[in-house]
Amino acid sequence: MVLRFDGERTLPLPPAQLWPRLRDAAFLVRCIPEAEVLGQPTRDQAQCRVRPGFSFVRGHLDVTVTVLDSAEPASVRFSLFSKGVGSSAEVEAALTLLDHDGRTRVCWTAAIKSLGGLLKLTPSGLIRGAAQKVIDDIWHGVEARLAT
Predict the structure, then answer these.
(1) Measuring CA to CA, which residue among 13, 50, 14, 15 is closest to residue 31?
(2) CB 3.0-4.6 Å disulfide test: which of 68, 80, 133, 139 passes with 91?
(3) DSSP of the chain, one letter per residue?
(4) Using H for helix, E for strand and C for coil, what is the string for 76-107?
(5) Higher confidence at residue 56 or residue 108?
(6) For 3-142, CATH number?
(7) Domain spans of the chain?
(8) Half-sphere exposure of 42 (CA within 13 A, CB side)
(9) Burial of 31 from C-beta contacts in 10 A (0-12 / 13-18 / 19+)
(10) Smallest Cα–Cα separation from 127: which of 55, 61, 64?
(11) What is the distance, to the nearest Å, from the Cα of residue 74 to the centroid of all Cα atoms in its chain?
(12) pLDDT tens, 22-62?
C-alpha cells in the first residue's frame, strides 16, 4: 500500500534564503512538534524521538530524516524512517521551491512507502487521517521556526 499526499505552502522567504533551511535535516527535525533531538544532527541526517498522538501507536517513535538529493535553490528530496515498539514506517517526501513575489511557494509531495508491524494492520483511512495531521503539524512547526 502506497499512500500519497501533496499540497502547496507559501512561506515568507525567497527561495535562495528558504532552500538552505529546508535542505537541512537538523533544521527539519527541530520543526517536528514536541520532538526530542537525538545525537548530533547534521545537514544530511538527523534523528529525533516523538510521542505519537495516535491511540493505535504506543510509546515513542525514533525518526530519522535523511536528505536524498537536492538542487539549490529549487528542490530537495528526503526520506523519513520511523521505528517504534511494534511499528515502523518509511516515507519519502519532495519539495519544489518556486519564487512567488519575493516569497516562496513550496509544492510538496509525500508518499508512505512502507508500513510495518501494527501499522501494517491499521486501516488506510486511519493512517491517512493521522498522516495528514502530522504533515500539517510539521508545516506549522516550519513556519514557527522561520518566524524566530
Answers:
(1) 50
(2) 80
(3) --EEEEEEEEESS-HHHHHHHHT-HHHHHTTSTT-EEES---SSEEEEEE----TTS-S-EEEEEEEEEEETTTEEEEEEEEEETTEEEEEEEEEEEEEETTEEEEEEEEEEEEEEEHHHHS-HHHHHHHHHHHHHHHHHHHHHHHH-
(4) EEEEEEEEECCEEEEEEEEEEEEEECCEEEEE
(5) 108
(6) 3.30.530.20
(7) 3-142
(8) 4
(9) buried
(10) 55
(11) 18
(12) 999 999 999 998 899 999 999 999 999 998 766 555 688 99
Q: Which grid coordinates belong to 60?
A: 515513542
Q: Which residue is associated with the grid cell 498522538?
A: 53
The sign of the torsion formed by the CA atoms of 26, 32, 36, 38 equals negative
List the grid coordinates of 115.
508500513
* Grid cell in block for residue 107: 509544492
User: The cell 535553490 sits on which residue?
Assistant: 73
